[in-house]
Amino acid sequence: MKRRDFFSIPALAGMSLYVRDLAADAVTGPSGSITDVEGIKVGHSTRTDRPTGCTVLLAEQGATGAVDQRGGAPGTRETDLLNPVNHVEKLNAIALSGGSAYGLAVADCVMRYLEEKGYGYPVGRGGNGAPRVVPIVPAAILMDLGYGGDWKIRPTAENGYQACAAASTKAPEQGSVGAGAGATVGKMGGGGRSMKGGFGTASVKLPNGIVIGAMVATNGVGDIWDHINNKLVAGSRTEDGKHLADIMKMMREGKLPMQQAPSPENTTIGAIATNLELTKTQITKVTQMSTDGHAPCQTGP
Questions:
Q1: Measured at the alpha carbon of residue 197, what is the angle toward residues 191 and 203, in degrees to the nearest 5?
Q2: Which of 41, 105, 232, 260 is the most exposed place for a label (fewest CB within 10 A)?
Q3: What is the pTM (predicted TM-score) of this model?
Q4: Using one digit for the tens of pLDDT, what is the confidence trace for 90-112?
Q5: Cα–Cα distance between 282 and 290 in angstroms, integer?
């Protein structure tokens, strides 16, 4: 099972090529998080009875959106609306959740929260003249069922509401929180050798005023490689648990353990945002480019 979902908004747009071209002059955004993009709020809801939870990105006034989904077993909701050939242009929130497909339920109460505040796609007026709306909330999930506890403990619709209520323009908490609470990495190394993944966010501000932010719940099957510093930072551990095993090195040396069914899951999900004005079609293309951030990148020996 491999899922890779990336959403783009306000012009949620991706960033890979822009950042590379201007990286030398780019600086970290004021808070160093996706909330450096004006109009974006982020909130978490993390369960205390098992490591799992959800993260909600709010764009309450509406933001042009796109999606790029890779892999053969997508766990998503309302992503077809983001296809540029379809009518709806704006989304109001993005919900990311643990809990596998069960976690898609969090979007129910994200919709309830937005409806209570009057945000959503306008669909006329009620008998009392009050506007009616249908909030547009694409969602994606990662597989963390059973990690650290009972398989049946997973994010619920109410967790989605809690994440909305907690959302703010401040830099969100990072680490084992929200959608990243039950995430793990390095599963390719075999049972018992993986380590915690989690939720992370970052931003850059370019000299021309463009701000680009990203947030990711990292639940990778392989290692996490810092391609800027050419350094392995997380992943499968050695048998004694004290060091990183280096999956790429193990593969080259033929030491990678044979995988047992079911094979380990890779379900990394995230969102990117920018203040750059783009059309829905342009955002879709840039979002596709941004998925390169998941690609293997190792330049060391």
A1: 160
A2: 260
A3: 0.87
A4: 999 999 999 999 999 999 999 99
A5: 12
